[in-house]
């Protein structure tokens, strides 16, 4: 079963350049995890599943933590925290997007997608 959080938004002070770290940038994160089929599909009991709120909390805690130079590192730290805190997760994919007004061509977002399995 896949459980996901899409377009979670925050302002983060991550980046290589001083102005990114000083002023912050708008970020979006998509997180998708795979867990073994669980009984929540039959029981309708929140205690028998991985609550997507817990996934959103992992993302925001990592995002609010120490500043990283690279979105690659931010993505890796998010996945590491997901696997550390949620043993039921067997696979996870995270997409981290950063608003990049100073990049040539003015793309709306730049970023990375990272997938890992346990």
Radius of gyration over alpha carbons? 15 Å
- Biggest sheet, strands in spatial order? 1-2-3-4
Strand content: 35-45%
Query: How many H/I helices?
Result: 4
Structural class by secondary-structure content = alpha+beta
Q: Report the span from N to C terminus.
A: 15 Å
Helix content: 25-40%
In CATH terms, the superfamily is GTP cyclohydrolase I, C-terminal domain/NADPH-dependent 7-cyano-7-deazaguanine reductase, N-terminal domain
Question: Which spans have pLDDT < 50 for at least 5 consecutive residues?
Answer: none
What is the CATH class designation?
Answer: Alpha Beta
Note down, in words, how this protein is organized.
- This protein is α+β, with helices and mostly antiparallel strands.
- It has a single domain (2-117), classed as GTP Cyclohydrolase I, domain 2 (2-Layer Sandwich).
- The chain is 31% helix and 36% strand.
- The chain is built from four helices and four strands, in the order E-H-E-H-H-H-E-E.
- The protein has helices at 18-23, 40-43, 52-63, 71-85, and strands at residues 2-12, 25-35, 89-99, 109-117.
- The chain has a four-stranded antiparallel β-sheet with strand order 1-2-3-4.
- Helix 3 (52-63) packs across helix 4.
- It starts with a strand and ends with a strand.
- 24% of the residues are buried.
Structure at a glance:
31% of the residues lie in helices and 36% in strands.
Could you name the key traits of this structure?
four-stranded antiparallel β-sheet; 36% strand; alpha+beta; 4 helices; GTP Cyclohydrolase I, domain 2; single chain; 118 residues
